[in-house]
Amino acid sequence: MNLSIVKKIASFLFSCVVLSSCTEQYAFQNQNFENALIVEATITNELKHQEINISSARPLNDTVRKIESGAKVMIVDNENNEFRFDEKDGKYISENEFKAEPNKSYQLKITTASGKSYISSQETLTTQNTIDLEATAVEKDGQRGAQINVKSFDPTNSSKYYRYEYAETYKIVTVYTTTERVKLVPYLNTFKMEIVPAEPNTHICYSTKNSTGIIQTNTTDLTEDRVNFPVRFINEADYKIANRYSILVSQYTQNRFAYDYYFTSKKMSDAGEVLSPNQPGFIVGNIKSTNDSSEKVVGFFDVASVAKKRIFFNFKDLFPSADPAPY
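Given the sequence above, the corresponding structure tokens read:
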């Protein structure tokens, strides 16, 4: 064998030995994982079936949400009225429609299937407000796009803290059309396929997406409790606004404690979920165990007034001289 080839092989084997002696594979383990109850509960001044999410903390390498099933859940007001919740589709939904009312306090009570009991502090409804939305064409970070701003004003100067969610719906127009479709029709004891005329406008559909994460603002540094908050920016080249676009924005007025809890949670996790089960630290909320004072509970029981507003616009409404993004 050629001497130079032998030297190269020897050098390669030596490098492998050195590297293997310096590096060991590490199998990640959550050795200090601590289980905790996670509660996402916001009731509002809307007359509706209120919803509460209850789950358990999961290890960092576990991506499956663990629903806390079989719990008894109720909300009690200061007049001893009880609002009970039933488990349905991974959530707890109130048996009857109800709404949070001014000058009343509300308390959340949970008893898990294992017999553990939890209770929240008593919370009252925040100031009720109205909102307006405005969509404009702007330049942001060197990009041109549509900016949706939330506007509101509290003349009592008592709201101050706000959280937002939105649902956006947009029109999709495909370049593909069809005049026929397949339909299943009864045939003997089974079905058969037939080719029938297609419905009109089969090339048009709509998609809806909800906001993720925690979106907040406050007016504590302003002389007036006046909000002009950029809740959503969409690049001009994004197909979402190429045709018809609509956004429904919900503004939740929070108290200081609720605002601080969500704000700190966002800083610690900045996850896609509202309250992340994978937080690297623990934030004290307003829910505690009645069995064990040292047990940690992740989450917050929020009683918040909500104001909603929807707007629609076409691409040409904001960008009359530009061409929309292609399909």
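The CA atoms of residues 169 and 208 lie 4 Å apart. Try to locate this feature in the token string yourself.
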